[in-house]
């Protein structure tokens, strides 16, 4: 049975979806972290290789071309050196070389629009005799600036000649971008491939949960011998063992309760049955004594009438016990006839001489298939309860539509305590402890409810807004399911 709130929203809130999402998030974070570390290391390696290659190439070209340079060089010689160095590395490094002597101007090998790409920081280091490397942005393009101080041969003394090379990093950027694309593709592929193990993991985790739900539903449906198969030693396996222990204890307790309930029902049925014979004899004797009570002395007459009254109560109680026992045993049967409902209710009131104490609103022409004996019990119990515990006037009304029949019994008493309302149809329930020995058996309303149920109807109790209690019996116009 599906729970409410299914569909896409229910699936999104389900444990399977959350497990798959969590698994995919972990896979995605792992893939992204791995891709980020790989990208960083690869980018650093690419740029470092480019930097080392450019520095070594520039140093080699400078060493080969400055040997014949006259010192101090003039601007023409510096221009020639710059051009020669630029041409020498144009094919492999695509660089542009600038030269300068001491505090003179930078002289490029090729005239370009961004002559100021060589930063002051690099120039300051080279002027101090320290080779320098810097990555810069110019004209929207990345550059590697390499600066070398030229020293005299076989010495560490600077000659005052400075050489700078601007190396474009377009190819390195392309390689780095290719790495980024590869990392993204790899991360997406990893997440995509993670769906399969995620679904498998979710299924393996949810299988015991589904079994638990199935077992709980079977126990709810009454299959108390349900047990789960326990595999493994994890927390879910332990939960299954606990479930099996609970189910075994529940089955044992329910079996014991059913045994005790069956014994109590059998006891009540046996006792009431055994009491019928002596009660019949007692009733016959009491009836004889009751007829002669007028000829007896007052004390004896009072005792005879008291015995007669108590014997009647006992007889009614035994009959009620036997009736409730029939319901418990499933032996109660309906004997349906099509009757005039108003006439049936009217006969119930007349048989008990209640017609002068009860206001009846009974429209004629309402017919239904009912068991007249059981409907007589229902009306008699409700009206008698209203007369004893409610307040007069008691009103009985009858209504019907195309499908149902309503019989309503209302009184003008103090009503029913809200705490008592849920229990008024319970067996032997009495709201007032002071009434523990009333003339009722405590089974009248319970028998009423069983008779109404036998007709596939309902009975309910409520308090009227105008005061007093209201009992409403609702029956189908064509009650069925019983024996004819």
From TrEMBL:
Listed InterPro entries: BphY/WalK/GraS-like (IPR050351), HAMP_dom (IPR003660), HATPase_C_sf (IPR036890), HATPase_dom (IPR003594), His_kinase_dom (IPR005467), HisK_dim/P_dom (IPR003661), HisK_dim/P_sf (IPR036097), Sig_transdc_His_kin-like_C (IPR004358)
Domain Histidine kinase stretches: 270-479
A GO cellular component annotation in the UniProt record: plasma membrane
GO biological process: osmosensory signaling via phosphorelay pathway
Catalysed reaction equations from the record: ATP + protein L-histidine = ADP + protein N-phospho-L-histidine
CDD domains cross-referenced by the UniProt entry: HAMP, HATPase, HisKA
SUPFAM superfamilies attached to this UniProt entry: ATPase domain of HSP90 chaperone/DNA topoisomerase II/histidine kinase (SSF55874), HAMP domain-like (SSF158472), Homodimeric domain of signal transducing histidine kinase (SSF47384)
Localization per Swiss-Prot or TrEMBL: Cell membrane
Keywords, sorted A to Z: ATP-binding, Cell membrane, Kinase, Membrane, Nucleotide-binding, Phosphoprotein, Transferase, Transmembrane, Transmembrane helix, Two-component regulatory system
Pfam families: HAMP, HATPase_c, HisKA
Bilayer topology term: Multi-pass membrane protein
Claim: Iron is one of the keywords in the record: no
Boundaries of every HAMP domain copy: 203-255
Tagged with keyword Membrane: yes
Protein name: Sensor-like histidine kinase SenX3
Lineage of producing organism: Bacteria, Bacillati, Actinomycetota, Actinomycetes, Kitasatosporales
């Amino acid at each position: 049975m599906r729970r409410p709130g299914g569909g896409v929203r229910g699936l999104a809130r389900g444990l399977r979806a959350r497990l798959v999402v969590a698994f995919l998030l972990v896979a995605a974070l792992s893939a992204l972290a791995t891709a980020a570390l790989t990208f960083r290391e690869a980018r650093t390696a690419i740029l470092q290789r480019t930097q080392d290659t450019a520095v070594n190439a520039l140093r080699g070209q400078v060493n080969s071309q400055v040997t014949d340079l006259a010192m101090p060089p003039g601007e023409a010689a510096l221009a020639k050196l710059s051009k020669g160095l630029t041409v020498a590395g144009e094919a492999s490094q695509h660089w542009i070389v600038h030269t300068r002597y001491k505090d003179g101007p930078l002289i490029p090998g090729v005239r370009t629009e961004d002559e100021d790409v060589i930063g002051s920081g690099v120039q300051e280091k080279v002027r101090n005799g320290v080779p320098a490397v810097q990555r810069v942005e110019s004209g929207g393009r990345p550059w590697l600036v390499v600066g070398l101080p030229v020293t005299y041969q076989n010495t560490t003394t600077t000659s005052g000649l400075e050489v700078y090379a601007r190396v474009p990093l377009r190819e390195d950027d392309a390689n780095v971008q290719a790495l980024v694309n590869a990392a993204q593709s790899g991360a997406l592929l990893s997440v995509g491939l993670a769906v399969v193990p995620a679904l498998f993991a979710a299924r393996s985790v949810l299988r015991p949960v589904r079994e638990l739900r199935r077992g709980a539903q079977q126990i709810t449906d009454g299959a108390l011998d349900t047990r789960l198969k326990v595999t493994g030693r994890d927390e879910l396996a332990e939960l299954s063992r606990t479930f099996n222990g609970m189910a075994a204890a529940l089955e044992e307790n329910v079996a014991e309760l059913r045994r005790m309930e069956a014994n109590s029902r059998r006891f009540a049925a046996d006792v009431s049955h055994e009491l019928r014979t002596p009660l019949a004899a007692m009733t016959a004797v009491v009836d004889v004594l009751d007829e002669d009570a007028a000829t007896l002395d007052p004390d004896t007459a009072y005792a005879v009438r008291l015995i007669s009254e108590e014997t009647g109560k006992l007889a009614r109680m035994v009959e009620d016990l036997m009736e409730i026992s029939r319901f418990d045993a499933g032996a109660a049967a309906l004997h349906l006839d099509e009757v005039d409902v108003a006439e049936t209710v009217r006969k119930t009131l007349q048989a008990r001489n209640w017609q002068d104490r009860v206001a009846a609103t009974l429209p004629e022409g309402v017919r239904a298939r009912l068991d007249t004996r059981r409907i007589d019990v229902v009306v008699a119990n409700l009206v008698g309860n209203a007369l004893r515990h409610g307040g007069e006037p008691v009103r009985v009304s009858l209504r019907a539509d195309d499908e149902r029949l309503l019989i309503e019994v209302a009184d003008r008493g103090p009503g029913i305590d809200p705490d008592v309302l849920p229990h008024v149809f319970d067996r032997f329930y009495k709201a007032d402890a002071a009434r523990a020995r009333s003339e009722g058996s405590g089974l009248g309303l319970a028998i009423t409810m069983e008779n109404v149920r036998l007709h596939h109807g309902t009975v309910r109790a409520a308090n009227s807004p105008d005061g007093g209690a209201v009992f409403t019996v609702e029956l189908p116009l064509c009650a069925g399911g019983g024996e004819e």
